[in-house]
Specification:
Blueprint (H helix, E strand, L loop, with lengths): L7 H4 L20 H20 L4 H21 L1 H4 L1 H37 L6 H24 L3 H17 L20 H23 L3 H21 L4 H33 L7 H29 L4 H14 L40
C-alpha cells in the first residue's frame, strides 16, 4: 500500500530495526543525539510498515503508540531543542493521532462494558450488559468505517509519519552536520535532565490535583504525564536495567489502571449524551452506579502506585537518574556481570506491603 524506504543507518546495520513492542531504548555506549535520532526514525518507519499490512486496526494501534513515544522523547530534550521545534513536532504528531482516536475509543467502549460486567456479574441481568455492548459495537463499527473507508485519515497519518521521519533524519549528531534543527545534542545528562525533571514534577503535581479534585479531566491529565515518564524511562532503561526497567513497569501498570478509569469516565459521558445506548432509565442508572464504583476502585489502586512512583522530590529523582548516567561512563570491561537477569521480557513482581493492598483490579496492557 505504502512503500517504506529505510533510513541509511538501518540499511548499513548501524542498529537493528526495533519493533514497536520493544527496543525503545538507548544502546549502551550510544551517543545521546545519535540514539534519539535512531529511535525517532525507527518509530516512524515501523508504524508506516504496519499500514502496509492487512491489519488496519493493529496499524492504528501501533501508530498511536509510536507517536506517543516520540512525543515523550521530544519532552525529554525540550529545553535543548527549544520551544519552537518542540511545539511544532508535538502539535503535528498530536493532531495526527487525533485523526485515529475515534477507532480506538469506539472499540474500547465495548471492552469497558465487558470489564464492568466481569467485575459486577450478577448485579444486573446479563442482557443489560449484552444489549449495551451490542449497541456500542454497532457504533464502533460505524466510526471505524467512516474513518478508514470514508475519509483520508489514514493517508494523512502516514504522510505525517513520513515527513516526521525525514525531519528526524536531518537532526545533527556531530559537529560536521548542519540542520535547521540547530546544533547536535550534547552527549551529557544535562541535555535530558531538565526535561526529565519537568516531566516527573508535572506528574506529581497532576496526581495531587486529581485527588484534591477527582474529576475525569484531572485524572486524564495525570494519566498523560504518567505515560510520558514511562516512555522516558524506557529510553533510559540501559542506564540501570533492574531499577529503571522496574520503574518503567510500575508506570506502565499505573498507566493501565488510569486508562481503565478514563475509559469508564468516557463511557459514562457518552451514556449521558446518548441515552438511547441504554434506553431503560433504571438500567442506565444502575449501570452508571456500578461504573462509578469501579472508577473509585481504580482511583484507589492508582493512588498506591502513584505514591510510590512519585515518592521523591523532582530534583532528587533527577539526581538519582544522573548517578546512573554517570555510572555507565566508568570502565566495565572487568569480566564481571554488573546487571541482574531482569530484561525486557521479564516483569518484576507487583508487591504490596500490609495495609497497602490494592483493590481487586484487572487491567489489560495498553499504550
Amino acid at each position: 500500500m505504502w512503500a517504506v524506504e529505510r533510513h541509511p543507518d538501518v540499511m548499513q546495520g548501524r542498529h537493528l530495526p526495533a519493533g514497536l513492542g520493544d527496543g525503545f531504548e538507548l544502546r549502551p555506549g550510544e551517543p545521546l543525539g545519535r540514539g534519539l535520532r535512531r529511535l525517532g526514525i525507527e518509530q516512524c518507519e515501523a508504524a508506516i510498515r504496519r499500514f502496509a499490512g492487512e491489519d488496519v486496526d493493529l496499524a492504528v494501534h501501533e501508530a498511536r503508540k509510536a507517536m506517543k513515544r516520540i512525543r515523550a522523547m521530544l519532552r525529554l530534550v525540550r529545553p535543548v531543542i527549544g520551544d519552537r521545534v518542540y511545539r511544532y513536532e508535538n502539535r503535528t504528531l498530536r493532531d495526527a493521532a487525533r485523526l485515529l482516536a475515534g477507532i480506538r475509543d469506539g472499540a474500547v467502549s465495548v471492552g469497558t462494558v465487558g470489564k464492568i460486567a466481569d467485575r459486577f456479574g450478577g448485579a444486573l441481568p446479563l442482557d443489560v450488559f449484552d444489549d449495551l455492548s451490542e449497541r456500542l459495537d454497532r457504533r464502533a463499527v460505524h466510526i471505524r468505517q467512516r474513518i478508514i473507508h470514508e475519509s483520508d485519515a489514514i493517508e494523512r497519518v502516514v504522510a505525517t509519519l513520513e515527513r516526521t521521519r525525514v525531519r528526524f533524519a536531518t537532526w545533527p549528531v556531530d559537529d560536521t552536520e548542519r540542520s535547521p534543527y540547530g546544533s547536535p545534542l550534547p552527549d551529557r545528562f544535562a541535555t535530558i535532565g531538565g526535561g526529565l525533571t519537568r516531566t516527573y514534577a508535572r506528574g506529581g503535581q497532576e496526581m495531587k490535583r486529581a485527588y484534591a479534585s477527582p474529576d475525569a479531566h484531572n485524572f486524564h491529565m495525570w494519566r498523560k504525564r504518567v505515560k510520558y515518564l514511562r516512555h522516558q524511562m524506557e529510553i533510559l532503561r540501559p542506564l540501570y536495567p533492574e531499577v529503571v526497567g522496574a520503574t518503567a513497569f510500575t508506570l506502565e501498570r499505573l498507566g493501565d489502571i488510569l486508562g481503565d478509569e478514563h475509559d469508564i469516565a468516557a463511557l459514562l459521558g457518552l451514556l449521558a449524551v446518548t441515552p438511547r445506548l441504554c434506553p431503560d432509565p433504571t438500567e442506565r442508572s444502575l449501570f452508571a452506579a456500578l461504573a462509578q464504583h469501579r472508577r473509585s476502585e481504580l482511583q484507589a489502586a492508582a493512588r498506591v502506585l502513584g505514591t510510590r512512583a512519585y515518592a521523591e522530590k523532582p530534583a532528587a529523582f533527577a539526581t538519582r537518574i544522573e548517578s546512573y548516567w554517570d555510572s555507565v561512563r566508568f570502565p566495565t570491561d572487568v569480566g564481571i556481570e554488573l546487571t541482574g537477569s531482569l530484561d525486557r521480557g521479564e516483569r518484576p513482581p507487583l508487591s504490596l506491603e500490609a495495609g497497602a493492598r490494592l483493590p481487586s483490579v484487572t487491567v489489560e496492557r495498553r499504550v
